[in-house]
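Structural biology now treats backbone shape like a language. To illustrate, our science desk offers a sequence and the tokens encoding its fold:
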Amino acid sequence: MRRKLAAGNWKMNGDSATLDELATLAQRHAEASVDLLICPPATLISRAVSCAGPIRIGGQDCHAAPSGAHTGDISAAQLRDAGATAVILGHSERREDHDEDSDQVREKARAAHAADLMTVICLGESLAQREAQNTLDIIGAQLALSVPDSATGENTVIAYEPIWAIGTGLVPDTDQIGEVHDFIRARLERRFGAGVGRSVRLLYGGSVKPENAASIFAVSNVDGALVGGASLKAADFSPIVSALEASA
């Protein structure tokens, strides 16, 4: 049985004061029946670990190289050294803003696995691709290229985040979410076999809120959520966690 996962991506938001929200979340869900993960900016990782209780702390990206002349970057080993146990890779904002392609995401995932970090690998289509009915082709290509052969149910999570739904308030209907998640599951089973393919957790991300969380979590092969803005405040994220616990 796959254990549900509620993950939060703070993106380039948060400061020392925001850690109070993390501490409150940890207190509210000290005995959660699902896994929790928060990925704050790298500047907060070590301090976040000290107040996160049972919540896992992760990074938002890592470099594929273990070290070197890469000003401004951070390696998977450095994330681990700071106390992180996970990392988000291939988020659409990285793919678009930094021109990252799926080959680069795969190399980063390999480095993260070598550093014993759980990788949350993001996939998603644009609105134009959705309207052209190319969603499954896009997701299939990203999945094939972004996920390394080292993937297992313990070190890899896949997050489906339609680009057009991130931060817009727009959300695919449950049939659309289910179609993509079922497709991803089938592709994973075909590539890795039923054991690994069925053990990898699949998250939905894109304007997940307390109001729509329960209906999303009821969809086939949705094992949790990757949440953006709503993860910054315990009052917003806690109901999503509770909805996920109710679906488990």
